[in-house]
TrEMBL record:
<protein>
    <recommendedName>
        <fullName>TFIIB-type domain-containing protein</fullName>
    </recommendedName>
</protein>
<keyword id="KW-0479">Metal-binding</keyword>
<dbReference type="InterPro" id="IPR013137">
    <property type="entry name" value="Znf_TFIIB"/>
</dbReference>
<dbReference type="InterPro" id="IPR013150">
    <property type="entry name" value="TFIIB_cyclin"/>
</dbReference>
<dbReference type="GO" id="GO:0070897">
    <property type="term" value="P:transcription preinitiation complex assembly"/>
</dbReference>
<dbReference type="GO" id="GO:0005634">
    <property type="term" value="C:nucleus"/>
</dbReference>
<dbReference type="Pfam" id="PF08271">
    <property type="entry name" value="Zn_Ribbon_TF"/>
</dbReference>
<keyword id="KW-0539">Nucleus</keyword>
<dbReference type="GO" id="GO:0008270">
    <property type="term" value="F:zinc ion binding"/>
</dbReference>
<dbReference type="InterPro" id="IPR036915">
    <property type="entry name" value="Cyclin-like_sf"/>
</dbReference>
<keyword id="KW-0863">Zinc-finger</keyword>
<dbReference type="InterPro" id="IPR013763">
    <property type="entry name" value="Cyclin-like_dom"/>
</dbReference>
<keyword id="KW-0804">Transcription</keyword>
<keyword id="KW-0805">Transcription regulation</keyword>
<comment type="similarity">
    <text>Belongs to the TFIIB family.</text>
</comment>
<dbReference type="Pfam" id="PF00382">
    <property type="entry name" value="TFIIB"/>
</dbReference>
<keyword id="KW-0677">Repeat</keyword>
Length: 312
């Protein structure tokens, strides 16, 4: 039961849902508030290890706008008997020829979905990566290229365009066999091909140190107080003329904040988490060190503690 407004009772009353007729009825006056309600839940629950080879599901997956038939194709099952084997082989060959155009796309989309799931990315980023790959595949530029690197680069670009950037190291960790150099080259190649095709530069979105900071702090097990101080420090560092990559600045700020806290982090741990080399973190820290009193919030550390900071 649930409460809903009844126009006859002129007030909120309890409603009853009649599953047999699909009607929502007022429990007090009997007025039908909504008729022929469509139940969008599963028709039944299927347990693969219990149902054996009999799958009672009568519907397929959702429509995919990136496929020529929307992903709503017909699959020919294999009948029994010798004559059935012959028919199934003939029909199977015809069916494979008819669906070969989308087969490579389906495999590519599955690979992108697997990588996105391992990174915990939302569906909008998956769809954007699928769209980028579909357009790139339409240019006939995929042949002879490292397929895994191309798919990983599409996911990297999609993260940038959706303002949820991931580092190349993070993308490389979920790509099958593609190195960071391969992904970087594939990304540059895709961007170049789109610029030639569209006649303008490809929108990639801007990267800020704050885009990576909270995720890195979470992986390092930092407290909420430390995370807030690091976020404020990163925002203030944008006003400085520090010519370092956003990831390097985020790593250097994290190191600076942890040195002022009770739970100090070693620079090698920050390097492993962020994917930034230890030497790069040291150099970025040296650039930020003179401005420590300006970027570190006073509520987190006093000036006497800031004076004790030293370069790593």
């Amino acid at each position: 039961m649930a409460d809903d407004f009844c126009p006859d009772c002129k007030r909120a009353t309890e409603e009853v849902f009649d599953h047999s007729s699909g009607d929502t009825v007022c429990s007090e006056c009997g007025l039908v508030l909504e008729a022929h309600f469509i139940d969008e839940t599963s028709e039944w629950r299927t347990f693969a290890n219990e149902s054996g080879a009999n799958d009672p599901v009568r519907v397929g997956g959702p429509a995919n706008p990136f496929l020529s038939d929307g992903g709503l194709c017909t699959v020919i099952s294999k009948p029994k008997g010798a004559q059935g084997d012959f028919l199934s082989s003939s029909l199977g060959r015809c069916h494979n020829r008819a669906s070969s155009s989308d087969r490579s796309l389906i495999l590519a989309f599955k690979t992108i979905a697997t990588m996105a799931d391992r990174l915990g990315l939302v569906a909008t980023i998956k769809d954007r990566a699928n769209e980028i790959y579909k357009k790139f595949e339409h240019l006939k530029s995929v042949r002879g290229r490292n397929q895994e690197a191309i798919l990983a680069a599409c996911l990297y670009i999609a993260c940038r365009q959706e303002d949820k950037p991931r580092t190349v190291k993070e993308i490389c960790a979920v790509a099958n066999g593609a190195t960071r150099k391969d992904i970087g080259r594939a990304k540059e190649f895709i961007v170049k091909q789109f610029e030639v095709e569209m006649g303008k530069s490809m929108e990639m979105g801007t990267i800020n140190a704050g885009d990576f900071l909270r995720r890195f702090c979470s992986l390092l097990g930092m407290t909420n107080r430390e995370v807030k101080a690091a976020q404020e420090a990163v925002q203030k560092s944008d006003e400085l003329d520090i010519r370092r990559s956003p990831i390097s600045i985020a790593a250097a700020v994290i190191y600076m904040i942890t040195q002022l806290s009770d739970d100090k982090k070693q620079i090698k741990d920050i390097s492993l988490t962020t994917g930034v080399a230890e030497g790069t973190i040291r150099n970025a820290y040296k650039d930020l060190h003179p401005y420590a009193s300006r970027i570190i919030p006073t509520s987190f550390s006093k000036e006497d503690d800031l004076n004790k900071l030293c370069c790593p």
